Amino acid sequence: MKKCPEKEILMAYVDGELENDERAKLRVHLEKCSKCAKEVAAISEDSLIIKTGIDELFARHRVNDKIMAEIQKSRVPVATTKDNEVVNPWWQRLLWPALGLALLFLAIVMLIPSGHRYHGSAVSVSFHALNDDSTIDGVVVPSDQVFKLQACSRQALCGNFLFSTVAENPTEFIMKGTAMVSFADQAIVDFDKAEVELDLVNGSGVNVRVNNSLVSLTSGSVNYRSFSPPVEAVIGAVKTIIATETIIDEAIDLASSTNVASVTVVISADQPKTVVSVATATSEPVHSTETQIKTATVVAVETVASESAEQEHPASGVEHIFNPFTDKPLGQGQ
Amino acid sequence: MNMQGKTDVELVKQVLAGEIEMFSELVERYEKLIFSYLLSRINDLQEVEDIVQDTFVKAFRHLASYDCERKFAGWLVTIARNLLIDSRKKSGRNIASTDLVTDVLLADSAKENRSHPPEIIIRREQFRKIVQMIQELPEDLRTPFLLRVVNELPYQEISEILNLPLQTVKNRIFKARGLLREKRETYEEMP
User: CATH topology for B8-91?
Assistant: First the structure.
């Protein structure tokens, strides 16, 4: 290494992010070059001062005891299902099966709907295949086997399944198609990457989440055939695969740091119709002057078109995030 | 009980199975991360404390919905970010309008400096000045920078936690460092 390395390399060295051979070469260089050695020492010193200072600050403002006291006070029962390979306390090992059996018995006696079998226990969701070629995680499952939706797991379902959810109002619905299914917030069944038809067959209704949208199944069928995989987006000059959540995050960051009321993230300048997310400031009136607005909340996310989103994108330094006030890319003529 | 060797997912499963005390290990592992994340976004230390607490309490209450395929730290950061957005909406507080971290630092150090040797006082003074400089950095640069420097996380992990592309994380950390060095050099050159 004859020439002095870029500052970025020196910073990566301090952060321990260089490969071994690169690191070794730089060490040799640092022994000979006092300018770079001084730079490395300065970067390290900055980091040490900040780390030591914030560690002290953190030590004075810890809330771990308050957190545990709050949790012990509320003791919200978080367990919803018996998890694989979890060693439960002895009383739970007896209590939950006993409760489950009792509730199953009640459910069978009181809640069985005509024409459909009913499975499950309180605050749980169970499902079973309705035909003999449906699969779970790629494995064909018999139609007489009942499964519970487990917390902390996602299962790939393909085929026709009957879901039974039990809370105050038992509900049954049929899923036809494919989806990654899991148990989400507040016992909501989550269908991700879904191409499904959902059909309520019993009960007054149930909320489910399909491809990140909350849906109320109240009557009839709901079709989700338009699932689009994460799109390839260009934000700034960086080209990468980004899920919708990332784009939203970028939009919030951008709106927070650039004093704009809203930002629209566009996949590509060549494909202006491929708007994937819209973030709008809500803490201040949208019509306020741009400089007064510093926080933003995503209020709408929609895919307008995505057929061509995975095609080629320009990798130039074109800014693809637009200021809605000027209709120009941010950072240009604001 | 040895909890050190357990993965986050193993601890989550034990908490879900009723061993609530296991949650304290998750707090131990990630309290500083959430503290640093919030400190990079708000200046009011009392608000930081409140949101750190609310983040873990909310995480506990919704633990059953945690997707074990996600990084636990990333899930916590998402909760903290949502609470922060809610807090800003409710209070109408402007994130950059106050300088409370510096105020608190000054108050804290004034109280404690009396009993400390001069080198610690000098180091604290340096820290106070650097904090002022960090506050002048754009918010989107501050967060990955502090997660790197304070929590010593690898770039890849920061990328996963903040759900940002790796190159974006690298660029932001480099940019933050560069701006900070410029500010320090300018400061040191001042008579």
Answer: Rna Polymerase Sigma Factor; Chain: A (1.10.1740)
